[in-house]
C-alpha cells in the first residue's frame, strides 16, 4: 500500500490527512475543485503542494473521478469531499444530496471500475444519528440512525451504499463515523472557529458583540489532527469496518463560549446575542460518542482535549491580530 488519493484534499481534514500520509512515506494524490479565485483551490495545501499530485475534478462529475483514478492508480482512496455545513444543507438540500450522496456513489463506482483491490474510506458523520441516543447518553456503532438534517440524510445514504458495495461486490470500504472535529483550519462559519474569531474581534476592539444561534446543543469536539490519524489506521486495518471516532466528552455551545471568552479575559454573557438567522429548522440537540471499538481494534486514542483544542485554535487565530 503506497499510493493514497484524497477527495476534498484542500479541506480541513484533507490537508491534515495529506500531511500525515506524506510523513508515513505514502505517495499522495488528490482532487481539487476549480475556483474562480485560483488561490482558493489549494489554500490549505499550499505548504505541501509540490509534494502532491493534484487533479481537477468534482464528485458530481464521475468522468473526472475515473480519469484521476486511472492515472494515479491509488491503493487507498479517502472520500472526504462534501458540502459539509449542516445549516447550509437546509438552504441547499438538492446540491447537498448530489455531492454527498450521489457523489459518494460516483467515487465507489469509479473505484470499482478502475482501481481493483483499492481500500476506500468514506467520511461518515455522527450527524447520521440525529435525535437517537442510547440510554447511557452515548452514540456508538449500534445506535439507530435517525438523521434530522438534509446533510445527515445525505451522509446516511453514502454510509448505506458503502456497506452495500462492500457486501455486494466485495469492495474494501470502511465508514469512519466521526464526531465533530475542529482545528485552526476549520471554516469560520462552524461554531468553534466562529466563537474563537468572534471573541478575538471583541478583544481587539473590531466588534462589540458576537451573534450566534442555539447555545443549548451539545457536541463531542475533537481535533482534526487526531481524527485524520484514525482514518489511516482504519484503512491500514485488514478488514473493512464501520467505526466511531470521538472523544467521549460532550460540551454545550454555551460551555464553548464560556471557555473561549474566559481564556481571553472576558465574560461571554456581556457579548453574545442570539440571532434567529443562525437557528436551524430542526436541531440535533446532543452528540457524545463512544469510541471503545476504535481504541480496542485500531489502538486509536486522541491526544488533544477540549481545552487544548480551544487553546490551539486561539493561538492560531490570535497571531493574525498582533
Ligand atoms: P471541509 O473543510 O468542508 O472540506 C470539504 C472538502 O470537500 C473541501 O476541500 C471542498 O473543496 C471539497 N468539496 C466540496 N464539494 C465538492 C465537490 N462537489 N467535488 C469535489 N470536492 C468537493 O470539511 P472537513 O471538515 O474537512 O470534513 C471532511 C469530510 O468529513 C466531509 O465529508 C465532512 O462531511 C465529513 N465530516 C466532517 C466532520 C467534522 O466535524 N469536520 C465530522 C464528520 C464528518 P474546496 O476546498 O474547494 O471548498
Ligand atoms: O454547529 C450550534 C449549531 O455548524 C455545532 C460538521 O463538521 O459536525 C459539524 O456539524 C452546533 C449546532 O457543526 C451557531 O446549531 C449555535 O448545534 O459547528 P457546527 P455541526 O452542525 O455539528 C458534524 C459531525 C459534521 O459531520 C458536519 O460536517 O453549534 N450553533 N450558533 C451554531 N453553529 C454555527 N455553525 N453557527 C452559529 O452561529
UniProtKB/TrEMBL annotation:
Keywords: Lyase. InterPro entries: GDP_Man_deHydtase, NAD(P)-bd_dom, NAD(P)-bd_dom_sf. It is an enzyme of class 4 (lyase). Its cofactor is NADP(+). GO terms for biological process: 'de novo' GDP-L-fucose biosynthetic process. GO terms for molecular function: GDP-mannose 4,6-dehydratase activity. It catalyses: GDP-alpha-D-mannose = GDP-4-dehydro-alpha-D-rhamnose + H2O. Residues 5-313 form the NAD(P)-binding domain. Its EC number is 4.2.1.47. It comes from the Bacteria. Belongs to the NAD(P)-dependent epimerase/dehydratase family. GDP-mannose 4,6-dehydratase subfamily. Catalyzes the conversion of GDP-D-mannose to GDP-4-dehydro-6-deoxy-D-mannose. This is GDP-mannose 4,6-dehydratase.
Amino acid at each position: 500500500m503506497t499510493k493514497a488519493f484524497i477527495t476534498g484534499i484542500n479541506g480541513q481534514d484533507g490537508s491534515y490527512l495529506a500531511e500525515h500520509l506524506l510523513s508515513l512515506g505514502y505517495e499522495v494524490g488528490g482532487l481539487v475543485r476549480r475556483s474562480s479565485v485560483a488561490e482558493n483551490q489549494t489554500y490549505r495545501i499550499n505548504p505541501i503542494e509540490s509534494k502532491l499530485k493534484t487533479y481537477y475534478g468534482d464528485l458530481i462529475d464521475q468522468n473526472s473521478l475515473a480519469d484521476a483514478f486511472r492515472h494515479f492508480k491509488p491503493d487507498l482512496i479517502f472520500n472526504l469531499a462534501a458540502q459539509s455545513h449542516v445549516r447550509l444543507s437546509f438552504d441547499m438540500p438538492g446540491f447537498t444530496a448530489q455531492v454527498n450522496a450521489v457523489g459518494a456513489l460516483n467515487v465507489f463506482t469509479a473505484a470499482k471500475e478502475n482501481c481493483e483491490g483499492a481500500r476506500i474510506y468514506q467520511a461518515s458523520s455522527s450527524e447520521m444519528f440525529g435525535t437517537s441516543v442510547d440510554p447511557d447518553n452515548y452514540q456508538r456503532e449500534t445506535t439507530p440512525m435517525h438523521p434530522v438534517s438534509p446533510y445527515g440524510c445525505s451522509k446516511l445514504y453514502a454510509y448505506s451504499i458503502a456497506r452495500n458495495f462492500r457486501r455486494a461486490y466485495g469492495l474494501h470500504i470502511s465508514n469512519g463515523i466521526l464526531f465533530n472535529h475542529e482545528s485552526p483550519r476549520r471554516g469560520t462559519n462552524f461554531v468553534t472557529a466562529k466563537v474563537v474569531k468572534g471573541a478575538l474581534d471583541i478583544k481587539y476592539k473590531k466588534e462589540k458583540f458576537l451573534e450566534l444561534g442555539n447555545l443549548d446543543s451539545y457536541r463531542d469536539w475533537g481535533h482534526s489532527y487526531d481524527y485524520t490519524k484514525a482514518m489511516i489506521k482504519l484503512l491500514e486495518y485488514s478488514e473493512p469496518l464501520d467505526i466511531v471516532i470521538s472523544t467521549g466528552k460532550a460540551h454545550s455551545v454555551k460551555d464553548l463560549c464560556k471557555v473561549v471568552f474566559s481564556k481571553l479575559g472576558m465574560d461571554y454573557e456581556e457579548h453574545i446575542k442570539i440571532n434567529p438567522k443562525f437557528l436551524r429548522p430542526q436541531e440535533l440537540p446532543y452528540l457524545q460518542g463512544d469510541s471503545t471499538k476504535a481504541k480496542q481494534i485500531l489502538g486509536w486514542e486522541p491526544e488533544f482535549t477540549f481545552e487544548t483544542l480551544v487553546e490551539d485554535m486561539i493561538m492560531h487565530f490570535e497571531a493574525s491580530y498582533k
